[in-house]
Structure formats: structure tokens, C-alpha cells
């Protein structure tokens, strides 16, 4: 079979498609004929050795997949051959077939196609956990989403709106802002790709102006120079959700939490999904219900072939991605 293979850490475009042996299902595993694989920012990091998790070589990146089960290993009890499945698998999804543990997969609802499903579990799973369990977002609260035009950001608009919040999308380009408004954001802020002190102050003032004094919740997947001005625009008793650091890991003045009596809250969906699998399963049941009722409408902006994998990952690295991109094996 064909696979996008990382034999050693290096730049995204230093990795290639190779012919490798078909996988075999070990105990507790099933082999999936992969139809599509979602591309996420961890793919940018993992092939360069910059991610928190470093798989042994050789490996394929690709953390979320959708496909059809073609064989099952010893001890598999719930999944059978021919089942349509989707899942967040960490890595090993950018290939034509993969062997995964049964516990990493879930049934793919009839209402969802393979490409949409491939972009669903990591982003919606993270956002739902963040806004529900970590943030306890309430109807009519204001929710600021930084980097709102990318994969995870769009899901924060969708879920935030479904939970009744007023969503403010903050992004670095007009095309990203247009997409966010189309996807349901109530307000938008265009920030600069490079921030200095004056631009940070301007960004903070814009948030305060739109929210009438301060924002209730911040969903921050960007960090870097965008974090402190956002925290400065936090409302009293607000919640700052730490999701990711595409612009770098920020240092925050803790005195701001005292002045605003606000909370900075970490979100680590992968760990939560492993340690609290029952709650995570209930989250997905609720997400699939929201999808069936049309209250969240996941979509794929662009689909690439397996041969174009490096190009697909580069769009995220180059900060050019709009919404969600996937690699399709069909
Ligand atoms: N905590 C968790 O459990 C969890 C789960 C999944 C993902 N994550 C993290 O969430 C983050 C977002 O993932 P994603 O898949 O949504 O990524 P994405 O689709 O590439 O979106 C990331 C956004 O970050 C912004 N950005 C700012 N500076 C950037 C830079 N130097 N390079 C690239 N993008 C930059 C971009 O928006 P603007 O240009 O508009 O600023 C971009 O749209 C990643 O850090 C990922 O590791 C965390």
C-alpha cells in the first residue's frame, strides 16, 4: 500500500510517499481501509519532531481517519468487517490502510460522509470538551475565538453558537473573516499577522468595544503575541481556555487574573478522551445529535490526494488554511 512516511524528523516537504507492507490487525486491533484523513496542526509539528508525542520511525502522521473495516484481530468484540468507522488515532492515518485499536474508533453515522468524518473527531471533540466541561459556557455569554478561521477555530464558532453564546471571531485575513461570518460568527476582528505593542493595545480595545467592557470566555488556539491583549480584555470572572500555540507559547502577567478574578484553564482533549472515555463517548453522542439536527454543520474546505499530502500540511504551516482540509484516498 501507499503511505506518507516520516523516516526521520525534517521539514514537511522532505517526507515522501512510499510503498510499504499492508498492516495486520494485532490483538484488539482492526484494519481500516482509509477513505479520508483529516489534516491538523499537530501534523505540521509531528514530522519535524516538535510535537509533544514522538512516534518511533518509520511512521505516518495523520491523527484522524474515516474508512471501512477490512479485517479484525483477536479479541475484537464490538466492530466487525465492513463497518464504517471514524476515529482520532494520534498518528498513522496518512496511508491507504491502518491497524488501530478498537477503542480508538467509533461508528460513523449514516448522515456523515467519509471526508467530513475525517475532519470531525479531533476538532469537535476538543472544542466540545473545552466549552462544555472546562469552560461551562452559558447561553448569552460572549466567546472570543482566536485563529477562528482554521480547523479547530471553525468548530468553536459552530459549537459556541449551538450552546447559545455570542461568538466573536478573530483572524488575520479578510478571507478567513468572511468564512467565519458565513459560518455563524456574530462579530469579527481582523488582527495583524505581526503584533507590536500598539497593535496589541488596539486588539484589546476592539474586544472591549465589541463586548461592552470585557469578554466572558476566550478560546485560544494561537497564543504568542495574541494572548496577553486578549487576557487584558477579559471580563470579571471570565475564563481563558488554553487550547494551542500556533503563534508560540506566551508568558502571561498573572496580576491580570487577580485584577479580574478570572481563570486560565488548560484543555487537553487527548488525555481527557483516554482517562474519561465514558464522558467523551457521551460528548460524541451529543455532537452527533447536534449534527443530525443541523445545529452544527461540519464541512471540508479542500480535499487533496495522498500524493499531495505534503502540500496539504504546508497550507497549515504557512498559515494559509481556510477551515478544514483532508487527504482523500478515493
Ligand atoms: N488542546 C487540545 O486538546 C488540542 C486539540 C487539537 C488541536 N490543538 C491545537 O490547536 C491548534 C490549532 O490546530 P488547527 O488544526 O486548528 O490548526 P489550523 O487549522 O492550522 O489553524 C490554526 C490557526 O492559527 C493561526 N496562526 C497564528 N499564528 C500562526 C502561525 N505562525 N502558523 C500557523 N498558524 C498560525 C492561524 O489563524 P490566523 O492567521 O487567523 O491567526 C490558523 O488559522 C494547534 O496548536 C493544535 O496543536 C489542541
Reconstruct the topology from this structure:
Elements: E1 2-5, E2 16-19, E3 29-38, H1 41-46, E4 64-72, E5 84-88, E6 97-101, E7 105-107, H2 114-118, H3 121-134, E8 142-146, H4 151-162, E9 166-171, H5 174-182, E10 187-190, H6 197-211, E11 215-220, H7 227-232, E12 234-242, H8 255-260, E13 263-266, H9 269-275, H10 277-292, E14 302-305, H11 309-317, E15 325-328
Parallel strand pairs: 8-9, 8-11, 9-10, 11-12, 12-13, 14-15
Antiparallel strand pairs: 1-2, 3-4, 3-6, 3-15, 4-5, 5-7
Helix pairs in contact: 3-4, 3-10, 9-10
The structure holds NADP nicotinamide-adenine-dinucleotide phosphate (NAP).
NADP nicotinamide-adenine-dinucleotide phosphate (NAP) is lined by residues 40-42, 122, 126, 147, 149-153, 171-172, 176, 221-222, 243-247, 267-270, 316, 319, 321.
Describe the structure using short key phrases:
330 residues, alpha/beta, Quinone Oxidoreductase, Chain A, domain 1, Rossmann fold, 2 domains, 7-stranded mixed beta sheet, 6-stranded parallel beta sheet, 11 helices, 15 strands, globular, binds NADP nicotinamide-adenine-dinucleotide phosphate
* Number of helices, where a helix is a run of at least 4 consecutive DSSP H or I residues: 11
Ligand set: NADP nicotinamide-adenine-dinucleotide phosphate
Number of strands: 15
Low-confidence stretches: none
User: CATH topology of the largest domain, which one?
Assistant: Quinone Oxidoreductase, Chain A, domain 1
List the secondary-structure elements in sequence, H or E: EEEHEEEEHHEHEHEHEHEHEHHEHE
Q: What is the CA–CA distance across the termini? A: 14 Å
Average pLDDT level: 97
CATH superfamily of the largest domain: Medium-chain alcohol dehydrogenases, catalytic domain
β content, as a range? 15-25%
SS class: alpha/beta
How many structural domains? Answer: 2
Rg calc: 20 Å
